[in-house]
Structures are given as C-alpha cells and as structure tokens.
Design goal:
Blueprint (H helix, E strand, L loop, with lengths): L4 E8 L2 H17 L3 E7 L4 E6 L4 E7 L11 E10 L2 H11 L6 H10 L1 H4 L1 H4 L8 E6 L4 H12 L7 E5 L7 H10 L4 E4 L3 H14 L3 E6 L4 H8 L7 E6 L2 H8 L6 E4 L4 H6 L1 H15 L9 E5 L3 H12 L3 E5 L3 H9 L3 E2 L3 H8 L3 E4 L8 H4 L6 E5 L9 H6 L1 E6 L4 E6 L4 E5 L15 H19 L8 E2 L1 H11 L1 H9 L9
Length: 497
C-alpha cells in the first residue's frame, strides 16, 4: 500500500482568516477542471476531493500540535493525495499550492518595509497612472509590498505584468497566488518570457500607454532588442537592480534610459554586505554537518558582492583566496590580505579550496578547474539564474550526475573528485529562502520605485543608455536615503561620536 502524498503550508492569521483561506482554496479546487467535486466531510472535518480518473484528495485545516514550537497564530493547511495517478497528483497539488497571504501576513510585511510601503504618500498625484509596468523581480513577501505601492502610485493592475523567474523561493507559489487573486495582476513564467512580453505590450498599447521595465537580472530588454526589435519603442525606460543585468545590456544599443539602481552608490554601500551574508548563511544552512572553519575557500570575482563574500568567509575563519580577471580588483584583493593569483587554474591547484563561491555573473569555473578541487567540494553561485558555472561541461565530464534534491546536484568527475553544485547552480541567497531581511532590502525596493517614477515623468536628466550619475542624484533627491538614516542611524538625542 502506497503512503499518501502530503503538501502542507503554514499560514499566520486569526482563526477566521485561516478558515476563510482554506474555504477559498476548497472553492478553487471545486472549479478546477482536474477536480470532479469537493464535499465537506463532517466526520473528518475536511474537504473530500474527487479527482479526475477516479483519484481522491483531501483538504484540511489544522493547528500545531505543539503551539509553543510554532509562531503565534500559526495554522496549517494540509492537502493530501490519497489515490490516483501521478499526473492527477501533480494537478491536484499545483492547484492546492495557490494560497495567497492572509491580511495578518501582509500587515507584518508592510510594517517591515516602512520606506516601500509609504511610497504613495510621497507622490499623491499618482505619477504612474499613465504607465504600464513589466516586472521581473524576486518572488518574495517584500515584492508584494512593492507591488501594492506601485498600484498606489497609479498603475492599473490590468497594465502590470510580472515575470516569475521560477526560482525555488520559500513562498514562490503563494506570491504568485497573491498577485493573481488579490491584485488581478498577470503573471507569466520565465520559460514563456517572450510570449509574456508580447502579451504585455498588446494589452498596454491597446490602452494607449507605454511601459517601464523593472528588471532584476537583465531578462526583458535583451529579449526585446534581439527578438522583438520592432516593439522596443513601446518601452520608455528600464530600471535594473543587478550587476549581472547591467552586463547583459552592456553590449546592446539601448534606445531608452537605464536607471541603474544596480550601480548606484546606495545599493553598493548598503546592500552588498547583506547579500554576501545571506549567501554564506544559506550555504551553511544546507551543509549543517560540514566543518568549514580553517578550510580553504575561493571567491570568484572581487566586485561589490565578491568583496563582501570574501570578508564574511574570513570572519567565518576560513582561509580565503580571491580570483578576478580584472587586475585592479586583483590588486585590491591582494592588498586586503587575501591570497590571489593571475592564473585561476594555478590558484585552485595550490590553494585546494573545498568551497568555491562565484560572484562574477558569467561563466567563471568549469571542468578543468573543478578537476583540481579536493574530494567533497562545493560550488556556490550568487549570480542570477545558473550562469556562474559551466554546468554542461561538468555534466559532460562526469561519470555520474546525481540530483540531491534541495541540496543541489552532485557530479562525479571522470578521474577526478566528487563535488556538489549547491542549489543546482541557482543563486544560493534565494534558494528556498527569503534572502535579505525585509528591513534590509526596503531601501533598494523603494529605489526601484523612485526609478520608475522618474522614467514615467520623463526626467530630462535620464538619457538613452546608462545614467549612473543621474541615478545617484535622483535617488538622493527622493529622500529615501535620508529616511533610512533616520530609521536606522544614530538614536535620537545626538549622533555617535
């Protein structure tokens, strides 16, 4: 007899909120083409779901057996698949995962993002009312607060499109469900990026509007300029959050202004340490039984993130080496006391790192270097998507490739060591995690909205191409950095000496 399959989601809220959320889910399941009927079973206090092809599922609302071991006001919504074929089970769980957040959960996120949540108060004239928005931002709770503020700034939800990057975030399905069910926003998956862009342009252009892109990783404009060049004129500007996104548009002739939050002083000085710390913390979370103190580590790339990753690893008592193809950055790493070398291959051969963290944003490490690693080594990426390591080369050079589930992918190199690429090569700081705390990321999210407003207003300082100096000026004028300092700077009563 096969054991039933179970999917459980913990939600925070009042008893009424939890009951309402479970009831909504039961109603959606009843409307699903893969579910024939949903009936309340009083004896088991659950909804019995009769599925296609004779399958059977069940939906129930439960409370923690040990309330002291869970956050206050925690409830668990449990979907159980009891009978049927794998395709029926997959369809049942796909529908059961679509749980928006409760009002209690949203209120908590709003309180953690005071700058982002109050953006509409800065511009009561709703400057985004005549603009469409196409967003490719990480699907975490903080994103919902940003979306709520953008709607408050005048964006029509019918003219907002979100691209789900399909990372395994901690709450990715719930974020998608909230966007669709609570805001009425259109969500497309990354695998259907071009189709999503075309659909967005068609909807927004039909309303006589043009759009601003808010991107995190350089997904939209390279696709538009290479595959849909005749549609490029629909967009009035691009806000980019990441350095990897900047690299992807550097070789393109941008016909519109780029508001570069990625290269701004604000992001570089405040956020980089948080990203590095989250990357290392998530790495250690996935490897709780490993001993890294005193071990060798290698950081690829000594930009803003790589610099901070090297420092965090050093604070973790690891012996840290750094490689960067840019000689100026390599000199900087050397003068900060890190082991360096002009040849990556030679540096790996002599340093023998068990932990390699890539922060370059492009192919930085392949099978030739991996063969020089010691046994039980780990490769970790902080780069958008899986671009940091040459995974195809590693696979081709391996005698066995093993899916380690949440941990990542194992590679047994032919005649070489066994290694694990954590998180399957995707950015480790987002791997089943929320990455930065909401209060930490608040300033950058607010900065993205500042950029969208400036582009929608056609600020004359923003010209086609990069606008780093103008970005810094506009962010400073917006007052969000001043507010951040007032919130988290010196306590009232005088500055620290």
């Amino acid at each position: 007899m096969k054991s039933p399959l179970v999917h459980a989601v913990d939600v925070l809220g009042t008893p009424a909120e939890a009951r309402h959320l479970a009831g909504e889910l039961a109603a959606r399941l009843a409307d699903s083409p893969d579910v024939e009927s949903v009936d309340w079973d009083k004896a088991s206090a659950s909804w019995l779901c009769t599925l296609a092809d004779g399958g059977r599922g069940r939906l129930a609302l439960a409370a923690p057996a040990d309330p002291a071991a869970a956050p206050e006001r925690t409830y668990r919504i449990v979907a159980t698949f009891e009978q049927g074929t794998p395709p029926v089970a997959e369809a049942f769980f796909a529908a059961a995962r679509q749980l928006p957040f409760t009002s209690t959960e949203v209120a908590a996120a709003v309180s953690e993002l005071p700058l982002t949540s109050r953006l509409a108060d800065r511009w009561p004239d709703k400057p985004l009312a005549g603009t469409g928005l196409l967003l490719t931002i990480h699907h975490m709770r903080d994103f919902l607060v940003l979306v709520d503020s953008l709607l408050g700034l005048g964006v029509d939800p019918a003219h907002m499109t979100v691209i789900d990057k399909e990372y395994p975030y901690a709450h990715t399905h719930r974020v998608d469900a909230h966007l669709v069910q609570r805001y009425g926003t259109t969500v497309w998956r990354y695998r259907d990026l071009r189709e999503g862009i075309e659909d967005h342009i068609e909807r927004v252009a039909a309303a006589g509007k043009r759009s601003v892109v808010m991107d995190d990783g350089g997904y939209v404009m390279p696709t538009v300029l290479r595959e849909l060049p005749e549609q490029a004129g629909h967009f009035t500007g691009l806000v980019e959050q990441t350095t990897s996104g900047i690299r992807k548009v550097e070789g393109l002739d941008l016909p519109l202004p780029l508001f570069s939050v990625a290269e701004s002083d604000m992001k570089g000085m405040i956020e980089s340490y948080g990203i590095a710390d989250a990357a290392v913390r998530n790495t250690l979370r996935l490897l709780p039984d490993e001993q890294f103190e005193g071990q060798a580590a290698l950081v690829l790339g000594f930009g803003r993130i790589g610099h901070e990753v090297a420092r965090v690893l050093e604070m973790r008592r690891m012996r840290v080496a750094v490689f960067d193809a840019d000689i100026t950055r390599l000199v900087a790493a050397h003068e900060e006391g890190f082991l360096t070398g002009r040849s990556l291959e030679q540096l790996v051969r002599t340093h023998r790192p068990r932990l390699v963290i890539g922060c370059v944003g492009s192919r930085s490490f392949g099978a030739r270097e991996a063969r020089l690693l010691p046994e039980r080594s780990f490769l970790v990426s902080t780069t958008s998507r899986n671009f940091e390591f040459d995974l195809e080369e590693l696979r081709a050079d391996s005698t066995a490739v093993t899916d380690r589930g949440m941990l990542g992918t194992g590679y047994q190199l032919a005649g070489g060591p066994e290694l694990v690429v954590l998180g399957h090569g995707m950015p480790i700081n987002f791997h089943y995690a929320e990455s930065l705390s909401n209060r930490y990321v608040d300033l950058v999210l607010a900065g993205l909205a500042v950029g969208a407003v400036a582009l929608a207003r056609a600020d004359e300082r923003l010209r086609p191409g990069h606008n780093v100096a103008a970005t810094n000026t506009i962010l400073a004028e917006a007052g969000i950095i001043d507010d951040y300092y007032r919130l988290y700077g010196p306590a009232a009563g005088g500055e620290r000496g």
